[in-house]
Amino acid sequence: MTMGSIPKLILAVTAVAGYLGTATAQQVTGTLGSPSATTTVQGNQLPPPSPKFGGVIKERASESTSWWPPRVVPPKKAPNVLLIMTDDDGFGSPSTFGGVIPTPALDRIATAGLRYTNFHSTSLCSPTRAAIITGRNHHSVGFGVVGEIATGFPGYDSIIPIEKGTIGTILKKNGYATSWFGKDHNTPFFADSQAGPFEQWPNGMGFEYFWGFVGGDASQWQPNLFQNTTPIFPFQGNPGWNMETAMADEAIQYMRQLKALAPEKPFFVYYVPGAVHAPHHPTKEWIDKISAMHLFDNGWEKLRETIFANQKRLGIMPPNAQLTPWPDGQAIYGGAKLPRWDSLSFEEKKLFIRQANVYAAYQAYADHEIGRVIQAVEDLGEWENTLIIYISGDNGASAEGMINGTPNEFTTFNGVEVPVKDQFLWYEFWGSDRTFPHYSAAWAWAFDTPFKWMKQVPSHFGGTAQGMAISWPGHIGDPGGVRRQFHHVIDIVPTILEATGIPAPHTIDGIRQLPIEGTSLAYTWDKANANAPTRHTTQYFEMLGNRAIYHDGWVAATTPVTLPWELSTKPPPDVITGYKWELYNVMEDPTQNNDLAAKMPDKLTQLQNLFYLEAAKYNVLPLDNTTLARWNSPKPSLTAGRTEFSYSGTLANVPGSTAPHILNTAYTITAEVTIPAGGAEGMIVTQGGRFGGYGLFLSKGELGFGQGKVVFLYNLLDLKRTVWEGPTLAPGRHTIVFDYKPAEPGLGKGGTGVLSVDGNEVARNTMANSTPITFAEDETFDVGLDTRTGVALLEYRYDPPFRFTGTIDRLRFKIGPQ
């Protein structure tokens, strides 16, 4: 180095200090000012301010010195991060945590790293997902409930505050490549259309690449799939396509591409498949494989005994743990009751075994595909440089199939129970694209062994306990070990930040950030800390009015007053005074089996008071234990307050939140169309599909007969279809009107529809019932085509996209009062 170069070096270091806050904190590679120079940033301010120009500018370029800003990179040796979380997976479901369903990929991470047996979710999908990407409690970030029942309070509006940035944003602005594959249940329903805004889509939350679906669930055969914010349809014309395999392919290609183009750039892959949330959609090969194992032939009670014995053998449960009793109407369960296996008929057992086999096949299939993604990390030579966190479920096993299970989950969401004998119509097709299936609620109780309750219930570990495994070779000192420290999903973000050496920012985009609320669990990686006390000492739980508080090894919890397997229209009890409280010492009683409330009232009162302090602190108030009322309550949307809608041409993939709302009201659909010479066929307008919805179309016909007839078809949850049929339309302009009036006010009431063509009534028909609450969530509103599954089954069947071959000059909806 010459003396003449020293001032320039000082100038360059001073310039880059704008990134770092202090020059001494930098990690610089290359010569500052050169095109190849890189630097870390202090991370307090994201993005960092642009550095001052460190070169020389004179009148002539030949006399000037260029200076490139250094590229921002993460700290040296910062690992790749692969964060995996499945959906609706009970604690006792995977083999890794004592279950009978083979999960070798989860086993692999547990063997290479650690198994966590006291890790907890919020008990419901989108709340857990909001917590895991922000490191804050779910009410703190607007997700006190799932987005479908959001209300206008800070803890419940499904809006993540800009003061609480995501791990995607933090890592991206520190030089990581960030991506999200699978389920996005954190985009508000009033912002999920092509009109945006997109700030709370994955791309707007710091994830540079998104490939997945938006909403609570989706068909794995024909999902509402997006690449970033653009709808895509890779399943069309591709028989056998399944999202589980396609998603793994996409993630593997993403990682390969990144490492080929930028080998030194670490990735953060957030991998969250729809499995094992309904619909349970494995391939036939996996169904056959699991069915041949006969895992469930002895029923749900014997299954619990098997799982619990496995948990004791594997050290998942300590020797003093007790198996909680089956719900037979006991007071401790608030009178809840599920059938005993021996009480069932032959037909019931046959159906329920089929349901469980398909579910287990779905879990095994999903784990297999996750295993492919993990193997790809090793194949890229990144195994030892990748922190892998694999969480089995975002809440407990789901009881949303009701007592009997269902071939169509949307029957549950509409309060309709499907009798066992009727379900045999779908028995052979269970798990195929002809079904949207869910198992019996009794299986959910079994898959949550050894705990009580299930998904939706935050007060008991059956709703919140999730098996988790973490591996990071060379950094976890006790491979294959078990950790029992209490931890929660809000602890994942601070754990990732500690592992990467990246601080939580003070500001993001100029907005002062509020503190992260979780606690890193990286201290548990040292073998010397295997039995160290947890550093997460207090944690509240609340969902749908049911609640609990964990503090220093004790849990105070309310007894559920509503059943997760029932959609009741009955008013719930008072949200404050209508609940009984239970008390558990979970250090000695990890399954919450021995209620101490009557023996230790002072301890219970202490914890109750603590719950309300935490509730006030984290936006939990006001408490609300309604569900149906919240689902139907007014929300912001692009359709709010509108009673008339007008369209023309083609419009596709519009979510239900932005479609004309025709449920439980009178409505009139008017279509002005032009038919070309030779006639026309195709969809004029539709919402929904095979599992519920409606369509106004011109028929396809068969072998040249019956084409071009005007048809309005209403599909009631794939249980009954009602048809209005008109004449074949001649070439020229026509006006088609469908007018529907309910017989009386109320949810799901029947009514009369009249189909008219060019001012003449051509069909009149009545329906005894209509859809009360929701059409299929993963289907859309389409004009001029049908993008996923068709509403027709046999009569007037067609194959999507079934494009309208005439011209839609104008399409109008007029909606009556609710």
Unreliable spans are 1-24
Number of helices: 15
Mean pLDDT: 95
Shape: globular
Strand fraction band? 15-25%
| Major sheet description | 11 strands, mixed
Helix and strand content put the structural class at alpha+beta
β-strand number: 33
> How far do the termini sit from each other?
80 Å
Work out the helicity level.
10-25%
Radius of gyration: 28 Å
Could you walk me through the main structural features you see in this protein, from its secondary elements to its overall organization?
- This protein is α+β, with helices and mostly antiparallel strands and 818 residues long.
- 21% of the residues lie in helices and 22% in strands.
- The chain is built from 15 helices and 33 strands.
- Strands 5, 6, 7, 8, 9, 10, 11, 12, 13, 14 and 15 form an 11-stranded mixed β-sheet that branches.
- A hairpin with an 8-residue loop joins strand 1 and strand 2 (38-39).
- Helix 5 packs parallel to helix 8 (346-379), helix 6 (284-291) packs across helix 8 and helix 7 (299-314) packs parallel to helix 11 (441-447).
- The protein is globular and about 80 Å long.
